[in-house]
């Protein structure tokens, strides 16, 4: 067995990556099965594995380009030798024949399992030793191939003509007989022969196609042979290959530049773009089939386009953050107002205390925030009128709040400096917090503008900076037991708090 | 693994320093969960240290003069700092504005020597000023206001007469929150009812000088006082009757159950702290040359159990962890020392066949040694159990979710058991309009760009 497998295993280097060399003694079909099975095990997304690998195959074996076709739809390569004539002892044949025959064989085998899970329940085509071919050992399968008749036209195998296999019944048909122009052959996803379609009207079968490379579609004349007729790479890409993608973008950019675009500015905006690492799509099981469906055990899945685009989602998120930021800023501003009031009152009180020979401490400086909102204005008013009343009798009924003690009152000694220092400090911290919030807000607004601006569309250029690094605001240098506090904080050492 | 080996019924005292945090602080207190330490510095800022990562996670800057006391709210969300700049600030650790903003500032007209939260509601705050007045500040909307705690005088007409009245030097809530205990400069303890702000009892402590500090056992039944005669006295508190309308105040002399002092050197005490079960008392000695913490065994009649030596930097403050045998103490140089109970790992005690070896031993197992099937087979022969049952049990065990997120809840409202006398008015009053300090609140992790420390 291994020896008979060898003619098929030999050309493996040309196949390269897609088919791992299996030492299995079973038929070749099984030996290349892994590739097959892997495609089938995909539940929903990325049917492009196939096309991907097939593309790889195509590129890696340029000689075989025309002859070798994709796994999903099987086409018999033309120009190869007649397949039956591969005797057990493959060494006697010429290498070329060997290779092509072998390719064809494994090509057949490779494709054979496109519907391996599908019950092949249709009427067997006469002479369907093809199935026998793939299940039985290779040396047996070579016989009887010469006389087999294929296609609707019931002719013997002619290796000059391209053939395609039905994915249901495993029968081979000439592409010309089933009305498939050569250019479309690459784009076939799953081919259902006319016979199967006819015989199963209740199933409503049809051939499914892959999406075409965008480069080909966007050409001036899409149907010309020059345009790219290869299939796109599925969910990952709209193009069949990187070259097509690049070519297409070249064309678009040159058109845009012709119409007055600036190449440099475009480069600036897109230079940070990165390759997508993955794609997540939502797929629904739906009744009807459309162009981009994958058939799987009778269930049909469609890829659902997200209702909200990515940019919209991003915009919504940014706007929400903006909202919360604005709210915080408002709250901070209100607090700043209170601090400003305190500052004013402290100043007024100090001034007042300077004029009289008493302590002058204003008890209302102890007001909490709510009391400030309630009584704030009345306090300020009291100072305005206060000046005129001071000369009058010392005992003023309303003025209980001024401490009447001596100038250097025991309890309140030094209140002036203390209060001023405190108010200054408070103001500063709030200021800094406010600044940070303003900065954040500005950044977010800028980002929103960037999104809305069509020139700078790529979303990945955003640099993540959601919550700016939290750093203690006024870092205090290590005080070695020194208690003196600089009222305005140590401006030079903002940033990191040093713990020495 | 260590904690599982430690017998949970056998909370002892710590013996060695586990870590030293360079914080430049004068005070350090554990929070109720024991995970965070609030450190107050002499320049007016406070730092919150996370003991699990041994790093400072928040800086609270707002005071312009040194901090005199820190207190935590029940679920560690709010921190109260009082300072010599006449203010007490309540910080909200859940605030996400950077830098952390204060929740409220309570201003007084004299330096605040201490401030503490009500144990049940962080909107009720007790503040003691250096001038000797104590205020109960209520920040709730319905009960807003501040009340000065005063002893009732028979001659209530006079407004002054500050001379006979003794200054208050210590003020503290008891663990239930029903009463406020105030120590005076003449060596008495005044007990006020929190809700009515009236004095309920007056205890004269013979021999004690100025009261310097209080600490309560978690149950609230025992109180340790620190006074200027350098003795720590432990009292068992009587049950106080609910306050009645007329000004009735019990005058009682309390006799301490135990006295703790240093007979040799007669050193004073800076601070003391009960262990969570009340069995041990840690006293921080005011020794100017070394860092000494004395541990007394209260269950054994107050004998000195051990002396912890923390090095050459003299001690300033001591606080026992709320649930573990761990102590935090601060030194003169600003370092925070965390003490713990080092337990040597005894893997030999883990399972029957374990033994400790000195060197690595290469072991080659038998081919079927760790087969699960065999094990269950053997078991089934031994216990005549069905193999499938065993297999099922094993599967079930594997599927059990291991809960790694919920921590041990700190004292599960032990205090609620102490609703003696059916006087629930006090609790309702305190719980009315609860603060926003919910149980499941967690502090946000703040990412810093540049490297810390």
From TrEMBL, chain A:
Record key words, sorted: Coiled coil, Metal-binding, Nucleus, Zinc, Zinc-finger
Chief location of this protein within or outside the cell: nucleus
Record GO terms (molecular function): zinc ion binding
Compositionally biased residues, Low complexity: 468-479
Annotated ranges, domain PHD-type: 148-199
Coiled coil regions, renumbered to chain: 308-335, 423-450
The protein, known as: PHD-type domain-containing protein
SUPFAM superfamilies: FYVE/PHD zinc finger
Region (Disordered): 1-90, 455-500
GO cellular component: Set1C/COMPASS complex
UniProt biased composition (Basic residues): 64-75
InterPro entries named in the record: Spp1/CFP1 (IPR037869), Zinc_finger_PHD-type_CS (IPR019786), Znf_FYVE_PHD (IPR011011), Znf_PHD (IPR001965), Znf_PHD-finger (IPR019787), Znf_RING/FYVE/PHD (IPR013083)
Name of a matching Pfam family: PHD
Localization of this protein: Nucleus
Domain of life (superkingdom): Eukaryota
BP-aspect Gene Ontology terms: positive regulation of DNA-templated transcription
Keyword Zinc: yes
Automatic annotation (TrEMBL), chain B:
A Pfam family per the record: WD40
Localization annotation: Nucleus
Region (Disordered): 147-167
GO cellular component, one term: Set1C/COMPASS complex
Cross-referenced InterPro entries: RBBP5/Swd1, WD40/YVTN_repeat-like_dom_sf, WD40_repeat_CS, WD40_repeat_dom_sf, WD40_rpt
Residue stretches of each WD repeat: 30-59, 60-95
Protein name: WD40 repeat-like protein
Organism of origin: Multifurca ochricompacta
Lineage: Eukaryota, Fungi, Dikarya, Basidiomycota, Agaricomycotina
